[in-house]
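Review session, final week

We close the course with one last complete record, chosen because it touches almost every idea we covered. It is SAM-dependent MidA family methyltransferase, a protein from Terrabacter tumescens with 330 residues. Go through it on your own first, then we will talk.
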Amino acid sequence: MDPVPWREAWHEALYAVSRGFYVTRGGPAAHFTTAAHGATGARLARALLALPDHPVRVVVDVGAGRGELATHLVDAMDPTSPGGTRTPQTTRVVAVDVVDRPAGLDRRVEWLRSPGGAGLPPELTGLSDALVIAHEWLDVVPCTVAEVDADGTAREVLVDPDTGAESLGAPLSGQDRQWADAHWPTTSPGDRIEVGRARDEAWTDLVSRVDSGTLVAVDYGHTATGRPAGGTLTAYANGQLTTPVPDGSCDLTAHVAVDTLDADVVRPQREALQALGLTGATPPHALAGADPLAYLAGLEHASTEAQLLHRDGFGGFWWAVKRVRGHDVT
């Protein structure tokens, strides 16, 4: 097969109806564990719900996988659940992903099917008093990949969709070149650039659909002071890192240039969660004698928080937070 730009092959490999990885090979949970799953997902949901400084009528989970985080969110809002604080009757939870509604998904979660990549459902618009969460969404919005040639020119990287073999195409031009010059300038031969323009535009589109509320992108990322010279494009399959081949057999992902997103605050997850009260601190040892069950529960709670805060794990994610102030936000 003739080589094509990585961005095109990447999109087909993940989202094509007949062979896309996310469409035909199960959700992310079938291949790796994210912070949205299990006990960490439950604690993360409660932290995210504490982020807005306004009433929340609707919570939207973009890139929802098979609804794992959305389920934790409805549980966290159910006053009959442990730690629940809100009622599902007043706050909707809407999950958005590229497949039909998963079988067995909690009935309290609404579902919208998206086109995949940067595409969003047309009915996802006009959101008021919203909390919109894009958890590991932008890293799978395909972007232009470039490499600097021997003469110092950044050229678009082409790839054979069947084998993953790469070659260099034409020099970056137009808006991709402008983005690279502004945000990822390099002339060192062999350096890679993952042009974040597609992610910026996807995020801007999502923000435009909110009339009032808070949006947060949670993702692997980097800022201008730490752009990775070799790029970050990689792949996962069956829980293991693997060679990126855009043939539909593996998940393809690249970190996000989080500082180029339209956001009010950009900071590591560990700092964002600490500001929301997570500490990872173990309970006092004296509690073990006074109330052993409470001590064990406290240890489990501390362990979960510690996983979310660990700087070399989930705590190394980035949060980009955008607040949209509408007339109905108080």
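Two points worth writing down before the exam:
The radius of gyration is 21 Å.
The mean pLDDT is 91.
Good luck, everyone.
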